[in-house]
Amino acid sequence: MIAEILSEPAEHIGQTYHLTGPVSQDMDAVAREFSAALGRTISYVNVPLEVMKGQLAAFGMPQHVVAHVATMAGLHQDNRYDRFSNDVERLTGIRPMSVREFVQKNAHTFAPVAPSSAAE
Predict the structure, then answer these.
(1) What is the predicted pLDDT for the residue at 109?
(2) CA 104 to CA 109: how far, in whole Å?
(3) Which InterPro entries match (predicted)?
(4) Cα-based angle 78, 88, 33 (whole degrees, multiple of 5)
(5) What CA–CA distance (Å, rounded) separates 32 from 36?
(6) Cβ(23)–Cβ(98) under 8 Å?
(7) What is the mean pLDDT of each run of 10 residues along the chain (120 residues)?
(8) 67 vs 4: CA distance, rounded Å
(9) With contact defined as beta carbons under 8 Å apart, do 29 and 12 qualify?
(10) In this structure, which long-range contacts are made by residues 71-75, counting pairs with CB atoms below 8 Å and at least 24 apart in sequence?
(11) CATH architecture label of 17-108
């Protein structure tokens, strides 16, 4: 989409585009798509925002990034991102990828990590 917009930027001034996949899904549906794509059960866990913020800070994430991620997570919890738009296809002529297609294409990224042994 960025390349399309930048190729003729004047016609996009003042426009708002929603970058969504081909269907509207809540986080439980996204987890089901991950499960189907990876062949193993993936569950959505609604982590309380304060707990998540503490964990992100403990990982060394800068406070402004923690605040941004927490805001996005809160919007997800409120289903504010559960929507569908045809903007991607309308602008590019290409059907957007589903969550399942994206996960299948990038399955190596989602491979389980072997737990490290504390005795090592």
Answers:
(1) 95
(2) 10
(3) Ergot_Alk_Oxidoreductase (IPR051604), NAD(P)-bd_dom_sf (IPR036291)
(4) 55
(5) 6
(6) yes
(7) 91 91 88 97 93 96 96 86 87 93 96 70
(8) 31
(9) no
(10) 73/47, 73/49, 74/49
(11) Alpha-Beta Complex (3.90)
